[in-house]
């Protein structure tokens, strides 16, 4: 089954999912409680375990055909409450989680063109669960009073993109500092040109190392690890 091209609220605008992927730290368990056809999950290297929740049957059916993925047709707010994500802390299962939360638009910010939407009160309920979370998480939306207030301790990053209605700015809020390492570093760079330049630099280094005699190459790699210990 192929994901539909134009799922409402999709993060599929050019460069948008890639910009979000370049904010996501390494993880083993990926949770997407308002999944839709989750363009971020489509773009990032799949985690070892992935869990998708949506009230709409189509994304649930789709994700259940994808690698390392399980999907359930459930209410995400009920799921997040029942699964006690607000009391998760490092050391508790699941190991190395990451939560990507892309709820329907807040009614104050624009008309949500979904079959399933959230009222302003449901957004407040969601924010009350999400704001104290310890697991690394991103929540997406347009800026509005409720989000700014509830997420004032989170880091806000604005993402500009081209919509049918012109240039728009969507915000992602993150509850962790800029990561020192990414789960999937393929999209580092602000645009295609920067990414291509970075790939060229990588190829130059690899070619230089490949040409070295094996012992010298290993000595060089040891020096590199010594100067830049793996995180
Ligand atoms: C913004 S869209 C997600 C878009 C997706 N991230 C993408 O890139 O295509 C929000 C999704 O939340 C789902 N949804 C709405 N209310 C829900 C609820 N209470 N529980 C679970 N899913 C819900 C909608 O069906 C919709 O697929």
What is the secondary structure topology, with strand pairs?
Elements: H1 16-21, E1 29-32, H2 39-43, E2 49-54, H3 57-63, E3 69-73, H4 76-82, E4 97-101, H5 120-130, E5 137-141, H6 145-150, E6 155-163, E7 166-174, H7 192-211, H8 214-227
Parallel strand pairs: 1-2, 1-4, 2-3, 4-5
Antiparallel strand pairs: 5-7, 6-7
The structure holds S-adenosylmethionine.
S-adenosylmethionine (SAM) is lined by residues 7, 9-12, 34, 36-39, 53-56, 59, 75-77, 102-104, 114, 116, 118.
Largest sheet: 7 strands, mixed
Sheet-strand content, in percent, reads: 15-25%
Give the helix proportion (percent range).
25-40%
Order of helices and strands: HEHEHEHEHEHEEHH
Rounded to the nearest angstrom, the radius of gyration is 20 Å
Overall form: globular
Strand order of the largest sheet: 3-2-1-4-5-7-6
The fold-level CATH name of the largest domain is Rossmann fold
Counted by DSSP, the helix tally is 8
Structurally, how many domains make up the residues? 2
Show unreliable segments.
none
- Average pLDDT metric: 92
- Identify the CATH class of the largest domain: Alpha Beta
The CATH architecture assignment of the largest domain turns out to be 3-Layer(aba) Sandwich
Q: Give the class from helix and strand content and strand pairing.
A: alpha/beta
